[in-house]
Write a structure and sequence with these properties.
InterPro entries: Cro/C1-type_HTH, HTH-type_regulator_Rgg, Lambda_DNA-bd_dom_sf, Transcription_activator_Rgg_C. It comes from Schleiferilactobacillus harbinensis DSM 16991. Pfam families: Rgg_C. This is HTH-type transcriptional regulator Rgg C-terminal domain-containing protein. It is a single chain. This protein is an all-alpha fold and 288 residues long. Helix content is 72%, strand content 0%. It has 16 helices and no strands. The longest helix has 19 residues. It starts with a helix and ends in a 5-residue tail after the last helix. The relative contact order is 0.07.
């Protein structure tokens, strides 16, 4: 069931698009026109990443939009992050370099600024920023900051797309369970891509730490939660994570062959998923 907030998002985006004399085809990017149309009519939800992409195509920042709908009071970090993402989409290197300098000057004692260093490091590959690992004493404050409502928008727009690699294993597990509970409660098909990418990123964290037990438990839980989602792609991504864990544990060629078979499937049906999974598998030094 689509909540009232999501309906309001779609209706306001429609008003913005019409007011700017833009067609759906001009703003839809990689989305189907029918998906955008249903979103505008309050009949479907889309991922926040897709919403931000639509807004950018319409010449509007996410911060400006959220101010209009009154759903969020953007923090400094959210405004800055949105500016960075918009600059990245425009390949505005001077703006990105300036952002890096601002971050470097404002990381001491500021949790949001510390998170932003990691955001730029993880999201903007054309600029190198020294990797930042959060101190254990900061984890509780970070947890409070990252788990503000509304959960789905925080998780999708920020946490799992940007923050997972730099958080503690315990906080990763907490956020993972929070996300999976939300997905199980809503069973929204538009979120299956988020679930798949989230699982992949969390798997990278735990596998790099050699934490096989947590990895396997995560996969088992995910399969239970996703059983009713009727998503072959998400089921296959969970299987791919499990195969990667088995390969790294046993270095067995049969597991590697199975991984390559799964990748070949994704390369055929969804090149974006294929490229994303290829990146994290190589990050784990799986020879694919």
């Amino acid at each position: 069931m689509i909540d009232q907030l999501a309906k309001r998002y779609g209706q306001i985006f429609h008003e913005i698009r019409v007011r700017r004399c833009l067609t759906i085809d001009q703003v839809r990017g990689g989305l189907d026109a029918s998906t955008v149309s249903r979103f505008e009519r309050g009949l479907a939800m889309i991922s926040t990443a897709n919403l931000i992409a639509l807004l950018h195509s319409a010449g509007m920042s996410g911060t400006e939009f959220f101010n209009i709908v009154g759903a969020l009071q953007p923090t400094v970090i959210e405004r800055f992050m949105d500016d960075i993402q918009l600059a990245d989409r425009r390949a505005d290197r001077p703006a990105l370099q300036e952002a890096v300098q601002v971050l470097k000057q404002n990381t001491e004692g500021s949790i949001p600024a510390q998170i932003l260093v990691m955001v730029v490091n993880g999201a903007i590959t054309r600029i190198t920023v020294p990797e930042y690992q959060f101190a254990a004493t900061d984890q509780d404050r970070i947890a409070d900051y990252l788990t503000e409502e509304p959960t789905w928008f925080k998780l999708e727009y920020f946490i799992f797309n940007q923050a997972v690699p730099s958080l503690s294993a315990a906080l990763n597990l907490r956020l993972y369970r929070n996300m999976m509970r939300s997905f199980a409660a809503n069973q929204l098909p538009d979120y299956t891509g988020l679930v798949g990418s989230s699982l992949a990123k969390l798997a990278v964290v735990w596998l790099r730490q050699g934490d096989w037990n947590t990895t396997y438990r995560m996969i088992h839980d995910a399969k239970q939660y996703l059983a009713g989602a009727n998503s072959v792609l998400i089921t296959y991504r969970a299987q791919l994570i499990e195969l990667a864990a088995n390969y790294l544990d046993a270095r067995d060629g049969d597991y590697l062959l199975a991984i390559k078979t799964k990748l070949a499937f994704f390369q055929t049906v969804d090149p974006a998923i294929y490229q994303a999974d290829l990146r994290w598998l190589r990050l784990l030094q799986v020879p694919v």
